[in-house]
Write a structure and sequence with these properties.
five-stranded mixed β-sheet, globular, alpha/beta, 16 strands, 18% strand, 326 residues
């Protein structure tokens, strides 16, 4: 247990503010684009995962893509996670010191399609709580970080079509009597990430009484892996996060396990600045091709199959979601 805890803490300590291939001379600002957006407004929201722009269409202009290509430092600037095992993380056993994971593979494919070089990327470590802020302030061109598309967020940033489907799930010690998102959480301390849909679900559960009134959801952290550390230290009794991330955390620590099934539907999307229509359409074109040519499936098999599938039984997440544009 102590070794596992130390490993998790190691991942946390390895978080850089920015990890990149080469320098950044700051000659171009990320997230440039027109001021107005054509994404659906949050108050008109229905099926937010189906509200992105079609790869085809538009007026043929590409101001955001042109600005990215015109940079002196010709790289895509992408906000990612660096401590989500098998999604976006730094493996201390990898001598190259490069980020790895399912989300990182997708970033490389987007860079290849936009700039003709899969390594033309400046990665920036962005905590869960700052994903939207980083996009709105132009610190990054996009965020690829297990980010759920929901009605609140589509009023603040533009999303691609969904590239992954999962749901919220409970993670707790194997010895715990917690059985899932139910009355066994009474009197228990639950950890979630600040600004996450996990916290939103917990708060809603308290308000509509799906959760016992005595469930303590006050513990929040900047990054969801910090919850695993708190669980290992006995500071909380359970973690609520996306099932895909929970499965990866269970793989890191054999003393914890998923409790119960998924209790929400979560669709991950690539998040970009409002008004970046040409960039959104390009990313959606990349996603369509990535799925069709087997790149998505190969990445899933490499990174997520070991944690999400049970033998020959495939997880529902093993099938990429179909795009349904607005």
């Amino acid at each position: 247990m102590a070794l596992v805890c130390a490993l998790a803490v190691t991942f946390v300590l390895l978080l850089p503010l920015s990890q990149s291939h080469g320098g950044n001379d700051g000659t171009a600002t990320a997230g440039q684009g027109v001021a107005h957006g054509s994404q659906v407004k949050a108050e008109d929201c229905k099926d937010p995962q189906d509200q992105s722009l079609s790869p085809s269409g538009g007026n043929g202009e590409s101001p955001v893509l042109d600005a990215i290509k015109a940079r002196k430092d010709r790289r895509l600037i992408v906000g990612v996670d660096t401590n989500s095992y098998r999604w976006g993380y730094l493996d201390p056993n990898n001598p190259a010191g490069e980020l790895e994971g399912f989300d990182i593979d997708l970033v490389h494919r987007i860079a290849q399609d936009i700039l003709g070089d899969r390594d033309a990327v400046q990665f920036k470590a962005i905590p869960t709580s700052r994903r939207i802020e980083a996009i709105q302030k132009g610190e990054v061109d996009m965020v690829v970080r297990t980010m759920t598309i929901n009605c609140d967020r589509i009023g603040k940033v533009a999303f691609s079509a969904p590239y992954f489907v999962t749901g919220q799930q409970v993670l707790a010690p194997k010895t715990s009597t917690i059985t899932g998102y139910n009355d066994t959480l009474a009197g228990r301390r639950i950890c979630s990430a600040t600004g996450s849909t996990a916290y939103d679900s917990l708060e809603a559960g308290k308000n509509n009484r799906d959760l016992p009134a005595s469930t303590d959801i006050r513990t929040t952290v900047p990054n969801q892996l910090d919850c695993l550390v708190k669980l290992q230290l006995g500071e909380v009794d359970a973690v609520v996060t996306d099932g895909a991330l929970a499965a990866s955390q269970a793989a890191q620590d054999p003393t914890v396990e998923l409790k119960g099934g998924l209790f929400t539907d979560e669709y991950y999307g690539v998040a970009m600045k409002m008004g970046s229509d040409d960039l959104v359409r390009q990313v959606n074109r990349t996603l369509e091709n990535y799925i069709k040519d087997g790149g998505w499936g190969a990445s899933y098999d490499k990174w997520l199959h070991p944690t999400m599938d049970k033998g020959d039984k495939k997880s529902a997440s093993a099938t990429p979601p179909e795009a349904d544009y607005k």
